[in-house]
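Regression test case RT-17, inverse folding.

Input:
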């Protein structure tokens, strides 16, 4: 009896499996039937439209009027073009698989398999030791951490900053970009160093993608920056930040008032007593009472108290007279550059006769050289040296050797013409070299006693 029960159990299991198989087949047939029914419905609609169009075309053959016949013919043509009967598939959708919807991607697959993707370049490494800051130029050098012959070019980015150390996430200036650099170094030249530092970073690029940025580096780009102090210049000078021009009508009215006050109650016109910056109230911008008389002078707005500095001055071609130099803050309001023991300069005169001379303490040294187009001024405060150069050729024009005991201000005098100023400049390498060889050989302080008194 147990054997019979076991046999019956196997029969029941077989019947259950067959029932599941039949049910799955019924579901498949139902799904196929729905597809066929949908296709039958679409075909019936297409057949009705086609029969209607055929009837309309048959009636149109009986139209006698040419214009109406042409109109009917166009309608038939348009309806035939858009008729659903021409867009239906007449193959029954009874397949139980999706082979009729498959797309052959074998060719595309083969093409993808043959592609070779370029790797993302690694970040370069900037070598601060190999970087050079000189002559208002910056050379940045870098290397790849490992050889990569797929590199096509590099992108260098830089920006100015007054913050030492690593670049800040939010800085006041944006990165400037230099693209398509083929080598592993680049030189930015002709810069104005109007900030203490510059940040640099670089990234490598291949034909496909740009890599990560290198770690940024910060290089020092310190130089003397100053403008002309238009709050205390002579009334007959028209002063902007880096330009000064003589204006004969600038202060006629007020100049006469100043002279009247100076000479009130006096007999004759004796030389007025000199005054210093320290003995007068601070100049209010616009008062313009710092220099008067024939002292057509303007000073820089930044004092030099230490270090070596350099700037350049260019005169207008028709400028009749001008001086370039330095002075203590105590320079008197009637004093002219080079005529006191508190100022040193070279003076150019193109009025009546042409002269070119060095001046200090009212003594003059004629210079037997051609007046250059642009004059470079080198001031070594700690070394007590003031030198003048041809800014283009770096030929030494004259050097003063002394001991500066007070802060210096760049000084400029101009009459019948104008001057333009260039600051934010490093001491040129050629000037540094000349200073080593020429130091103490020309225009020493001891020789000034032998100069001609003017």
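Golden output:
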């Amino acid at each position: 009896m147990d054997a019979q029960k076991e046999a019956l159990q196997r029969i029941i299991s077989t019947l259950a499996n067959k029932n599941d198989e039949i049910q799955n087949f019924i579901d498949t047939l139902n799904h196929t039937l729905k597809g066929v029914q949908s296709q039958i419905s679409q075909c019936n609609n297409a057949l009705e439209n086609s029969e209607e169009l055929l009837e309309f075309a048959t009636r149109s053959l009986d139209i006698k009027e040419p214009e109406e016949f042409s109109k009917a013919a166009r309608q038939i043509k348009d309806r035939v073009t858009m008729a659903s009967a021409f867009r239906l598939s007449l193959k029954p959708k009874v397949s139980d698989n999706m082979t009729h919807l498959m797309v052959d991607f074998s060719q595309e697959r083969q093409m993808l398999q043959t592609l070779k993707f370029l790797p993302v370049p690694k970040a370069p490494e900037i070598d601060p030791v190999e970087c050079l800051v000189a002559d208002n130029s910056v050379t940045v050098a870098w290397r790849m951490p490992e050889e990569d012959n797929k590199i096509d070019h590099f992108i260098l980015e830089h920006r100015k900053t007054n913050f030492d150390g690593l670049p800040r996430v939010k800085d006041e200036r944006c990165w400037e970009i230099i693209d398509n650099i083929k080598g592993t170094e680049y030189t930015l030249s002709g810069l104005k160093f109007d900030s203490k530092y510059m940040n640099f970073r670089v990234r490598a690029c291949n034909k496909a993608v740009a890599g990560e940025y290198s770690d940024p580096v910060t290089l020092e780009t310190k130089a003397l920056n100053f403008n002309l102090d238009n709050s205390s210049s002579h009334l007959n000078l028209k002063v902007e930040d880096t330009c000064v021009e003589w204006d004969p009508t600038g202060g006629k009215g007020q100049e006469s008032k100043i002279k009247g006050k100076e000479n009130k109650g006096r007999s004759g016109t004796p030389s007025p007593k000199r005054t210093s910056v320290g003995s007068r109230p601070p100049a209010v911008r616009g008062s313009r009472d710092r220099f008067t008389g024939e002292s057509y002078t303007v000073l820089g707005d930044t004092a030099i108290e230490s270090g070596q500095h350099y700037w350049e001055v260019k005169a207008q071609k028709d400028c009749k007279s001008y001086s370039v130099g330095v002075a203590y803050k105590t320079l008197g309001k009637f004093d002219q550059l080079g005529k006191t023991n508190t100022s040193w300069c070279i003076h150019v005169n193109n009025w009546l006769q042409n002269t070119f001379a060095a001046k200090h303490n009212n003594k003059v040294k004629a210079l037997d050289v051609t007046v250059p187009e642009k004059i470079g001024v080198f001031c070594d405060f700690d070394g007590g040296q003031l030198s003048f150069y041809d800014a283009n050729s770096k030929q030494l024009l004259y050097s003063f050797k002394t001991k500066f005991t007070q802060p210096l201000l760049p000084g400029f005098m101009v009459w019948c013409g104008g001057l333009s100023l260039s600051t934010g400049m490093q001491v040129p390498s050629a000037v540094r070299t000349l200073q080593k060889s020429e130091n103490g050989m020309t225009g020493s302080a001891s020789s000034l006693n032998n100069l001609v008194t003017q």
